[in-house]
Amino acid sequence: SADAASAGDPRLEALRWRHEYAGKVRDLYLSDAEPGRALVVASDRVSAFDHVLDPGIPGKGALLTRLSLWWFDRLDVPNHLAGSRGGLDALSTPLPPDLAERAMLVKRLDMFPIEAVVRGYLVGSGWAEYQESQSVCGIRLPAGLSNGDRLPEPIYTPAYKAPHGMHDENITFAQTVELVGEADATALRELSLRVFGEASAIAEQRGVILADTKFEFGRDPSSGEITLADEVLTSDSSRYWDAEAYAAGGENRLDSFDKQIVRNWLAAHWDKHGTPPPLPPEIVERTAARYRELIERLTA
Ligand code: ATP
Ligand code: MG
After folding, report:
1. Which of 106, 241, 259, 260 could form a disulfide with 80 if both were Cys (CB 3.0 to 4.6 A apart)?
2. How far away, in angstroms, is 86 Cα from ligand 2 center?
């Protein structure tokens, strides 16, 4: 949607970073002085129901960047950071602090056109698909599962990464083989399931359930290695639940850790046509507090 477009930060442009691309939440910059690299800057923008909302959530870009870096550090898989401190140590000219805290300097990879989704629980679009076919992305599941149930084991349910602005589309593993070949398709599935297993064990020790997540991988053009890219295990790319609320079984048990406040408010105040109404300050503040709580629980 048009509201995704945002101008580049003039301070970065003064440092010769050109604004290459604006996602709903993040901006990508390139520089001739940093060949083979890209600067990914997370904003405070928040999106729900495919719309960028107004206003943003103060501190969100910095918090989600911190969370991504914390996970990269813990996961046993090659990642796209160009150096230490979010890759920024590899920069010759440092960034202003308020940009540095939400920026990552990454190796530019040849990205696979696949969103590597892993689900440990049956919920959302997985639950919808299961009700129709008792399967998700071609994976047959046991009968009698309910919304939010833990799966017997995590499943890999890839999606085709549609060009900008289009809806991603769930595909079968066989379709990923057609897209990237047998060897890479198999490697992507194995890496995704392994990293998901590592991450959900870490989250669980902290009373947080990692219900599902989306990874993106690319190939490092210099080493040829399959490399974990993008943001990783943030609350924008993952569904986190509070383990205690889940176990208690109330109606909030499947509320995602952070954005649910925004989603619930919007569902009650907007008919999903046209532009969403501005979020009231109280909703913004409660959402910001929820982001802070998630990162404190995980990284404490
Ligand atoms: P949306 O707004 O729906 O999220 P998007 O995924 O295209 O759209 P962003 O997530 O904001 O937008 O942008 C990040 C983009 O950068 C993605 O297209 C992602 O695949 C790409 N990307 C992430 N890491 C790398 C990397 N190391 N090299 C090259 N491209 C990357
Ligand atoms: Mg994205």
Report:
1. 106
2. 18
Residue 120: count of CB within 10 angstroms of its CB: 21
The ligand 1 site (C-beta within 6 Å) comprises: 23-26, 28, 38, 80, 106-109, 111, 164, 216, 218, 229-230
State the distance from the centre of ligand 1 to the C-alpha of 80, rounded, in angstroms. Answer: 12
- pLDDT bucket at 7, cuts 50 / 70 / 90: confident
User: What phi and psi, each to the nearest 5 degrees, are found at residue 69?
Assistant: -65, -40
Q: Measuring from atom 13 of ligand 1, which residue has the nearest CA?
A: 23
What span, in angstroms and rounded, lies between the C-alpha atoms of 290 and 242? 11
Tokens of 83: 């150096």
Q: Give the confidence band of 168 by pLDDT, cuts at 50, 70, 90.
A: confident
Span 93-149, pLDDT tens digits = 999 999 999 999 999 999 999 999 999 999 999 999 999 999 999 999 999 999 999
Q: What is the DSSP letter of 33?
A: T
User: How many angstroms separate the CA atoms of 171 and 126, rounded?
Assistant: 12
Distance (Å, rounded) from C-alpha 240 to C-alpha 200? 10
Q: How far apart are CA 20 and CA 6, in angstroms?
A: 11
How many whole angstroms from 161 Cα to the centroid of ligand 2?
9
Query: Is pLDDT at 3 greater than 50 in this prediction?
Result: no
Taking the model in full, what pTM does it have? 0.95
ipTM over 0.90: yes
| First and final C-alpha spacing in the chain | 37
